[in-house]
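Troubleshooting entry. Yesterday's outputs looked truncated, so today I'm pasting the complete records for two proteins to confirm everything comes through intact. If either block looks cut off, that's the bug. Protein one:
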Amino acid sequence: MALNGSHDAVVIGSGAGGAAAAWQLCALGLRVLLLEAGPAFDPVVDYPLDTPGWERRPFPVKSGSRAQVSWGDLGTLAPEDEDLADWSQAGFPWRLPAGSARPPLNEGYFHVMGVGGSTLHFVGEAHRFHPDAFRAGSLTGDGADWPIGYADLEPYYTRVEQMIGVAGTPEDGGRWRSQPYPLPAHPLSPGAQVLLEAGKKIGQGWQVNPHFTLSEPYDDRPPCNYCGQCARGCPLGDKGSTDVSLLRRAHATGRLTLIPNATVTQLHPGPGGRIERATVIVGDVAQDVETPMVFLAAGAVQTPRLLLASANRDHAEGLANGSGQLGRNFMETLSLRSVGLAKAPIRSQFGLPADAIWWGPGARAGFRLNHTTSETGLNGPIAYANRLLPGFGNDLKAAMRQNFGAAIAVGAIGQVVPDARSHIQLDPQLRDAFGQPIARISSVLTAQSIARLRAMRTAARAVLAAADTTLVEEASSRDTFSATHVFGTARMGREAETSVVTPLCRAHDHENLWITDASVFPSSGFGESPSLTIMALALRSAEAAAA
């Protein structure tokens, strides 16, 4: 398939940042070639959640839908942090001895490569960053400030919410709004209602979590049926993954050409630094594609990998790396989960995942809690048997009858402070199927992160105790590297000497290269999910590029 033609911009990656950039460029009259390394997913065929065995089916893995990575330094399990070790009442073998290397999760770096990117399996939390999160370094002494503020992104937050259809309430944890949410909030699930009432007893102000999932028909898409399986893929199209929202809108303009299974292996700058072409492999055929403008949105791991792998004589340390910061400042997901069993079933297996949130005790704490019963898989009997209920045979059956629907899981996500030991590099030996070096991930938790995990655990346990539950399981980033949200590696800043891209996300070193994913984040926020912010940044960048 010949890719060179009449396009004005090339977008690499079709997740939150790539899809938003592609839509904005198309809406402004530009012709866009969108290159996605992974396959397309068919919601009806690939997400069979109405068939037996649904609980054993995670999000599907298709050929080419997982990136190969390797592991560098992930830190060690320090003996003084044994109180944070994972455990389960059912005896699931999570514990590793102190001094062991901290392992990645079983699925490794689980970010979907495919049309829609990781929005295909995200739960759909639609968070604006708190105004204070943009100046976290100044407020808390940890991390870095952004070169832009909340007011710079507020109009773009609003546009994304209106385009995709976000459901929420006016009470939004101090995030002021110029317009209300386009859709009313979802009803709270039984488990979330318990947390809301328990939180009142101890000063935790739980509220409805804003969601990309539709609460009413919107944009020719149906409302949510509350099956609770968002992370396994949405067969109805009510969850606002980019394939059914932004990319559908971009296709409607007639200006989008989307090519799945198209792997970009190298970017080629000209003498002045301008990116002139990209080498793309579709099937087994490699070809060079002209790049009037490039929007790179491959994520905080694959974006620096491609730029580092594109090193040449004039850019020996990789493209966009005049500052030496490319691949640096990597931030993983600082997460924790605590699970309690109520005295009797409360039908906690039902409802929208992540439907309730507590924004936390303030900016200096740097974390939030959310209701995560469905998101963590506790909406089916197999998870109860494997993780929560000990025993075998008749004893297990009796325990299941007594307890199924009684589990309440509280999740916590917190701010990560960049550390010099946490970065993305090219693996010196391992290559992918196209002969390119794969990304090697190093990520070490700092003392601040360990202290924050303890604060997160204290808050999660407190609300579960207030709900009169018995603690039966806990797990956290202390024992496993977590990559639900990853940030940094192409930091945004005003000075070319200390950052990779400008406040508008254009590379300091290449006038026609824009980076529109979470790699540009100077900080990880206070636990907010990043998709809405990624999309808002991408709209802003594409608008500036097309001006």
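Protein two, checking that the full record survives here as well:
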Amino acid sequence: MSKKILIIGGVAAGPKTACRVKRLLPDAEVTIIDQDSLISYGGCGIPYYVSGDVSDEKELRNTSFHLTRDESFFARAKGVTVSTRTRAVAVNRQEKKVLVEKLADGSREELAYDQLVLATGSSPNRLPIAGADLERVFTISDLHQAIAIKELIAKGQVGKAVIIGGGAIGIEMAEAFVDLWGLEAAILEFMPQLLPRLVDWEFAGMLEQHLQEKGVEVFTGEGATAIEGEDGRVRRVVTPQRTLEADLVVMAVGVRARSELAREGGLLVDPQGNIVVNDRLQTSDPNIYAAGDCIAVKNRLTGKAGIAPMGSLANKEGRIVADNLAGIPTRYQGWVGSFTLKAFERCIGATGLTLESALAEGFDAAAVTTAQSDRAHFFPTQAVIPLRMVFDRQNRQLLGVQGFGPMGDAVLARIDAAAALLQQGATIDDVSQVEMAYAPPFATALDALNATANVADNLASGRLRCVDNAVFLAWMDDFASRPDWVALDIRHPNEASVLVEKFGADKWLSIPYIEVRERFQELPTDKMMIIICDAGTRSSEIQIVLDSVGLDNNLVLGGGFNLIRRLGVSWLG
């Protein structure tokens, strides 16, 4: 007798589970039910559909060989039965049945199962503020919302858009509105920076600066308190600091697991509402599995579990569930938290923990920031990619890597390599020696990731002392009243001359890198010197030189001006 496998949820994890099961158990009776009419689409591609990079919403539902993933496709190509517009009402675990309701006519029936898979996904959060239910206040929860947004814009009914939430979706939507459609767009983020908890403030600051250069207004540390409208339609977003005109609002303030069905069925759910699973993705009922945005996923660095709403993870989890359904014991090891994001001409990405998060988790954490070439310095398309490496001072464990640079594969390549190393429990010494593919059009002979690990080694070993970027910028903001420090600019005099003229030769010292060994006697002994170059590499070498002659009153600015420029500080002009 063939096994009956019932899957609730038809976007990512559900279809992946179904298709894998049918390959492993061709005789299994596999059924997917979903309350939506559209299934198995690339939800992460929604902003790119709105932007026009993806011209037709069907492309998000099509296979790579141009067949649309609908009920007919699954039945004919995969041997999987799909019932759309069908809502799961209740799970009867004792009888192994699920009560479902047909949304078209309200009729109900019970579907039997031998094994059940919950792939119910997540629901977008909606702020509990006045006006949240006005017309044209959207959450990017499904493809229908994206289609409605694009239709409004295409009809010329939107001139100004406000995005509440400065996470990945909010940033991608802002780009979509501005880049293709030429709308005015503003991002409101309640936390002090964009991408909170995903990157450290310097990398969020570089991203914010680029967004502003491209015409996106960004307001951080500022939350929406009300949405105002006229005739039932949104017109304004109000914060404690300002009122923003709006023809359309996108509320992108995170998601929560759709776990009501599991909770009501008596399955174990954590305090945050995520379905608790073991490492084979079984719930507290061994005949019921769960995958995707609805489950609590273990972070491999902290050991803590929480929601991990990523399409990439949902597909991996779906395969693991299918293996276990077919009797292939497969364990899910969790995630380390990797992402990448396109923002106009820039790319930002990260894996693992930020410095702030690592310290909060109790690690003896430190971080270094570099500004590395993405390919050989002599190659015509060479560009600079700031990288940040977070690690534990005591055991030298790698904890995280962040990158920012031109749109392309340079940042992605380093983040992917770091993610793989993180999952193996690598140290900064492992990263220093990891073999990276090399050719001048793609990388430097000593790869940017290797070089950043070497800087981390120098810091961990006490061979490098750096000034915190926030401390340096605070010093610059209070320049005149800080007689206890000076800047030592070791770039070419032509580069340093503007700041020497602006701040004075007694405060902004200019001695070229190549002359420091000959002229160190000119340097002060009673003031803290901040050694500055473009990337920090020459500065760290000069620190060693000065230390060797007894001038250890110095700190290096990691990442140098390549980082500071990207933050858009006013004193650089």
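Both blocks look complete. Sanity check on protein two: The mean pLDDT is 94.
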